[in-house]
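Q: I'm building a small set of examples for a reading group on sequence design. Run inverse folding on the following structure and report the sequence directly after it, with nothing in between.
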């Protein structure tokens, strides 16, 4: 038996929708722009109506989404957006779009979904504890232990940790509507473009700018090491594709660790420890399919 899974990777700029077999074989896939729920939800339902009509009934849905969002299955508001700054999304619930299919729905964060994809099929294979961070429109981190995403009363919000901000070296105020110069406010894609007028990869001589962003991100990397002791750190997202950024992050992280943690996982230079995603841009939708498969069990 190989039931069909409806999978959604909901990101800050686009949604990836897929119908797949439980073994991961994708049968239909599309992308839609992230707009308001009133605009996105009908498109989502229409895609899965059409895909289901072409390939068979959908047995479960897996959703890996931007947040903040309630990911506690025991909560009455499971799958509902909370304080997200995206217009129209606070209070929206994926069940509003998918509930009419009458099948189980599993909802987790986009980074937890990507971490799950990497743990099963990518750069996190063989790890017991894995941390996956995306740096793009926003910054977020998911942590897995034995293939299960970790959380407390809600999911982690690593992108909003405070970081030292030398305003003489970096006078940019930050763009986070809640915290201003938190990590996301200083190092996510919109912060980079507002500070320098374009993305890191388009700057003519970006070494100094790459160094600044790497130092900010190293605060998160070191915090993840000290709080979770992961077997590996995966850094993905559009910003991390900038040539030279991951090597700069390795150097800054190793410098901040200052030799305090001694473990075989922390190889000299951290070349095996801090890595890009093995699945590339497919990590999120792969994880969403796996979430849907879990919903069946």
């Amino acid at each position: 038996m190989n039931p069909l899974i409806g999978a959604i990777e909901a990101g800050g700029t686009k949604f990836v929708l897929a119908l797949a077999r439980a073994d991961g074989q994708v049968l239909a896939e599309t992308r839609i722009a992230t707009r308001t729920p009133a605009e996105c939800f009908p498109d989502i339902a229409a895609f899965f109506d059409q895909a289901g009509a072409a390939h068979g009934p959908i047995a479960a849905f897996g959703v890996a989404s931007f947040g903040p969002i309630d990911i506690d299955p025991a909560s009455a508001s499971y799958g509902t957006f909370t304080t997200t700054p995206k217009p129209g999304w606070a209070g929206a619930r994926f069940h509003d779009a998918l509930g009419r299919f009458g099948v189980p729905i599993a909802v987790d964060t986009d980074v937890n979904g990507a971490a799950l994809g990497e743990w099963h099929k990518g750069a996190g294979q063989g790890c017991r504890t894995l941390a996956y961070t995306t740096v793009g429109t926003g910054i977020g981190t998911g942590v897995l232990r034995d293939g299960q995403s970790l959380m407390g009363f809600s999911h982690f919000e690593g992108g909003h940790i405070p970081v030292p901000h030398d305003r003489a070296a970096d006078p940019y105020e930050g763009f986070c509507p809640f915290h201003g110069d938190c990590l996301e406010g200083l190092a996510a894609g919109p912060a980079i473009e507002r500070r320098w007028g374009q993305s890191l990869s388009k700057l003519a001589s970006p070494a100094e700018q790459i160094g600044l962003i790497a130092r900010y991100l190293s605060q998160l990397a070191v915090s993840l090491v000290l709080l979770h002791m992961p077997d590996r750190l995966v850094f993905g997202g559009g910003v991390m594709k900038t040539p030279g950024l991951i090597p700069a992050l390795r150097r800054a992280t190793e410098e901040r660790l200052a030799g305090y943690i001694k473990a075989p996982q922390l190889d000299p230079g951290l070349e095996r420890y801090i890595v890009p995603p093995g699945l590339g841009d497919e990590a999120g939708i792969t994880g969403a399919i796996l979430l849907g498969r879990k919903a069946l069990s």
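The chain has two domains: 4-113+281-296, 124-276.
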